[in-house]
Design brief:
Blueprint lengths: L1 E9 L3 H19 L2 E6 L3 H8 L5 H9 L2 E6 L14 H12 L3 E7 L12 H4 L3 E7 L11 E3 L6 E3 L6 H16 L4 E6 L5 H14 L6 E6 H10 L6 E4 L1 H15 L6 E5 L4 E5 L16 H13 L4 H16 L17 H23 L1
Parallel strand pairs: 1-2, 1-3, 3-12, 5-10, 8-9, 8-10
Antiparallel strand pairs: 4-5, 4-11, 6-7, 11-12
């Protein structure tokens, strides 16, 4: 199978973690007999520096012509004073719109080998396997009008939260379908006691739920859901929510399982999937070789599963990550005081090695 992929390393630690994800992708291709057609383009601060645009037309065209996009990270303090449309993050928001990627999937899995990394007691976090399904193209991040107006000292800022029934229904159906293939439980998160958008959200999700009688639907206000996420995380299966709530709760979920560096994401729904680690560009550690590449590597597993329907290959990548953690592999964000940590490159090399072994084991089992 030919895998046509665009790589967007981006800013900060993006190029470092993307490099390791690509090594893993190339090992998948070698072990399973696929061919990777990989093209690299610019986005974010890197694109601003080179072209004066955080998402150049050449990048958009290349992404549209691909089957999947692998993104590192965007963001740099060098552009903090730029106008909103000329900041690195504007490139990412536009890319999501261009690809029609309305459904953001963010798994948060607790690995027993990392029991010491979670701030929660093991008996609380044990068994946590959450899939956050976040609506990605609506809400406050995209709603109009938005502005900052007025004279200095008397300015007013406006952002608009806006959702249509169609937008809510399509993300709800994604959430229910995914829950149907898991533990058949869906927790819908809103703020319907305060927000009209959330009242519509709850009404539409409830209506869609009638088409999925085998999935148990519950509703929760976002503040209550945040509490449940730290009190009883293992009880959550699929968590469905709107754009901003999903952004916040998924970072909280990263803390629950031990590190944001472990979280991968898939943005799907359009013709081309977008895959990226949840962490940001982390400019404070960029270039030091200490970034955790596991989120980027696990994003490759999501790409193999959701874009290419290569479940065996995805499972091998995930198995290699689990094996590495169980063998004691720790990047700096996961290491306890006094514990040796590995570099970004060392972590990638170990995953590649274990992936090759996992592929051979699966091949022998199949034969």
């Amino acid at each position: 199978m030919r895998l046509r992929i665009i790589s967007l390393p981006g800013d900060g630690i993006g190029p470092e973690v993307t490099r390791q994800a690509i090594r893993v992708l190339e090992e998948v291709a070698r072990s399973f007999g696929h061919e990777v057609e990989l093209t690299e383009k610019e986005i974010g601060g890197a694109a601003l520096t080179a072209f004066g645009d955080p998402l150049p037309p050449t990048t958009i065209a290349a992404c549209r012509a691909s089957q999947a996009v692998l993104l590192g990270a965007v963001g740099s303090p060098a552009f903090d004073r730029n106008a909103r449309e000329l900041r690195p993050e504007a490139g990412l928001l536009r890319l999501r719109q261009e690809l029609g990627a309305f459904a953001n999937l963010r798994p948060a899995v607790f690995y027993p080998a990392l029991r010491a990394s979670s701030p929660l007691r093991e008996e609380v976090v044990k068994g946590t396997n959450i899939l956050i399904v976040r609506e990605l193209l609506g809400g406050l991040y995209f709603g109009q009008p938005r502005s900052i107006e007025g004279a200095m000292g008397a300015r007013q800022a406006v952002n608009t939260m806006r959702y249509s029934e169609q937008e809510i229904e399509r993300i709800a159906r994604v959430g229910f379908e995914l829950a149907r293939g898991r533990r058949k439980r869906l927790l819908s998160v809103d703020k319907s006691n305060v927000l009209e958008c959330s009242r519509l959200w709850r009404e539409v999700v409830t209506r869609v739920g009638a088409d999925f009688p085998d999935v148990h639907l519950t509703h929760q206000y976002v503040d209550s859901a945040a509490m449940i996420l730290v009190q009883k995380p293992a009880e959550i299966d699929v968590l469905l929510t709107e754009n901003m709530f999903g952004d916040i709760l998924s970072d909280q979920a990263g803390g629950v399982v031990g590190s944001l560096g472990l979280l991968a994401s898939a943005s799907i729904g359009g013709p081309v999937g977008l895959y990226e680690p949840v962490h940001g560009s982390a400019p404070d550690i960029a270039g030091q070789g200490v970034a955790n590449p596991l989120g980027a590597i696990l994003s490759v597993a999501l790409m193999l599963r959701h874009t290419f329907q290569l479940n065996n290959e995805a499972e091998c990548v995930e198995a290699a990550v689990v094996a590495a953690l169980e063998a004691g592999l720790r990047t700096r964000d996961l290491a306890k005081a006094g514990e040796r940590s590995v570099t970004t490159t060392e972590a990638g090399a170990r995953i590649v090695e274990l992936l090759g072994a996992a592929a051979k084991t699966k091949d022998r089992a199949a034969s």
